[in-house]
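Input (structure):
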């Protein structure tokens, strides 16, 4: 069954362009033109991905993203914006977006990003198998994009899970922020590694017994981070 993508933008010409190209790539589409409509549709339908413009009437894209994540919806989100400011880019990712494109963009690039996000979020068939990873009370299930701590299920955004998985797969190794940025986000944010710190902070809130004294994800001053087996 074809995967379904919600396109959210108040510019009808952009929605029409994206709809055509996304459907040509083999996906089903649905449309929303306001932030409120996007929230309603996302609550009623299990979309595989949401293409979300920031500048929307009623509720902007940032608020839509924030509310979706607050409701524990882990649907991947590709944000679109006419702005090219670092603040907007980082804030969008902090709120739980999985990727970010600045207008003007080519439809091909949008489709390429969609395919990449869906592959990474495990909503498409994975090409390689991974074994479950157990680190003390933390168990990670790569194939299901799930994890538990002391048997209790954890809720992650797709990007948070990818970062956790990469740290776990490299347990005991010091990983520089630039390396994590490249491995998890797949491209450079012009040397801005703040987004890595933000996501590590989110992970710690979910897996660490005490965020002030982390035992799983250690900060290696001046270098980066390291996943360890708690002692």
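Output (sequence):
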């Amino acid at each position: 069954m074809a995967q379904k993508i919600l396109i959210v933008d108040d510019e009808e010409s952009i929605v029409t362009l994206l709809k055509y190209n996304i459907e040509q790539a083999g996906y089903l589409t649905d449309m929303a033109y306001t932030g409120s409509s996007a929230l309603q549709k996302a609550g009623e339908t299990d979309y595989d991905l949401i293409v979300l413009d920031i500048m929307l009437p009623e509720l902007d894209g940032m608020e839509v993203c924030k509310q979706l994540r607050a409701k524990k919806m882990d649907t991947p989100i590709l944000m679109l914006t006419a702005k090219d400011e670092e603040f907007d880019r980082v804030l969008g990712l902090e709120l739980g977006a999985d990727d970010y494109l600045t207008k003007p963009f080519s439809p091909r690039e949008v489709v390429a990003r969609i395919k990449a996000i869906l592959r990474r979020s495990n909503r498409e068939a994975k090409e390689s198998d991974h074994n479950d990873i157990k680190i003390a009370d933390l168990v990670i299930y790569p194939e299901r994009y799930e994890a538990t701590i002391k048997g209790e299920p954890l809720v992650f955004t797709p990007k948070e899970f990818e970062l956790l998985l990469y740290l776990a797969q490299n347990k005991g190794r010091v990983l520089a922020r630039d390396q994590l940025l490249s491995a998890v986000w797949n491209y450079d944010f012009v040397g801005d590694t703040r987004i890595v710190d933000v996501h590590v902070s989110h992970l710690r809130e979910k897996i660490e017994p005490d965020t002030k004294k982390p035992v799983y994800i250690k900060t290696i001053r001046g270098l980066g981070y390291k996943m360890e087996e708690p002692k």
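Notes: The helical segments are 12-24, 35-44, 61-70, 86-94, 107-120, 158-169, 177-185, 194-207. The longest strand covers residues 4-8.
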